[in-house]
């Protein structure tokens, strides 16, 4: 313990030392005073990622043991061998349309709400009997269905393709099928909702995609188990003894032997054949649950069709689609597409629910997520739910208008960009950065800053939106740019960096 006199002497000595050191500090800025040095330190502190030391083939094996199957593709597609599929990768932005019986009251926006579970049976859970949900087909006939209005807005917003649920797990076909009696031919006096959708896509230069659910929960539904885990609850959610088990009911496992399974499979095959032959050229098939036809069988009916789920990696939601996950997918050489609900607060709703009217992304979120996916070599397929009566929610048109304005000046950062690894995002920069040869397009962080390492000196650095020149700092083979606050907007302010030659060192 210091005596009083000693304590005073110590304080005086400390003050002298601080005075002597202060000039040195003024001459040598701390990291906080040197944004470039701080950005470099933060970049160097990143942990090593699995793609860094592995070849694509080694990474494919690693992914098999460490990543969800939806983050892995069945094959590495040779782009040169399939020029007919180039549109898919280069458009990059798809509109997912879950619309059908699960959109209609008293349903919950979730087809799985008819599957009994302890959670859904709780007071706060969502549960409807299959009988109740199936009964919607007796009265549903959307009076305000106007897909041409949907697609006109989507085209202006930059969407390159759309995917409609022609049949979801409830098994109800949105066209007048000649197979079975569970479609608009039997319930809507022959009205063809798929035909109107196809024509709207063609009218607005949107590539046509069909979603089709392999599982058909309506087929022979009175003999199926509607519970998970399997507990023996029938279509009225009565506890009974039922066969076959749920795995076969839902269609995620190979069908069990028996006439019923074979009849269901044959009916689904013929329905897909109708979809592939009744509507002219179809660009894309998106399977869910299981694939009814192989890519080769589809190609016999539609020679240029692209198969999404079932051929490429299709991470679902952010629990699969983190940047680190899809970076692995891209480095492994696989094409990928993130399908995701456009919700701020997660719900089970892939179909319409009243909460979707207010619980949705804003324009900045749509564009930021699109830039992120493109910077990591993939596509973005965003789910937006039409109302039961066939109208789109009002906010969809507002967002499309704002995205359309952004696309007028910044679409070159999104379309026809380089998608094959290696890409700079997560390696050379934490900014989501797309590239097209010697032109790079970086999205600033929340502070308006961009930092990229291991590059040559740039030829020019501009704000893509306006073409205005931006000041930058280049040293130690690294580039730092900061968009002034006065030039920032609420949407991604893309920075265009042009290199005279090869950008990478």
Q: How would you portray this structure in words?
A:
The protein is α/β, with parallel strands linked by helices and about 500 residues long. The protein folds into 2 domains: about 55-410, Alpha-Beta Barrel (TIM Barrel); about 435-500, Sandwich (Immunoglobulin-like), CATH 2.60.40.1180. The chain is built from 15 helices and 14 strands. It has helices at about 5-25, 35-45, 55-65, 85-90, 120, 130-135, 145-155, 185, 195-205, 245-250, 260-275, 295-300, 325-330, 365-375, 395-410; strands spanning about 95, 160-165, 205-215, 285-290, 305, 335-340, 380-385, 435, 440, 450-455, 460-465, 470-475, 480, 495-500. The strands form 3 sheets. The chain has a 7-stranded parallel beta sheet with strand order 5-4-3-2-1-7-6. Strand 6, helix 14 (about 365-375) and strand 7 form a beta-alpha-beta unit. Mean pLDDT is about 90; it is low at about 1-30 and about 245-260.
Summarize this, please?
The protein has 505 residues and is of the alpha/beta class. The chain is 31% helix and 14% strand.
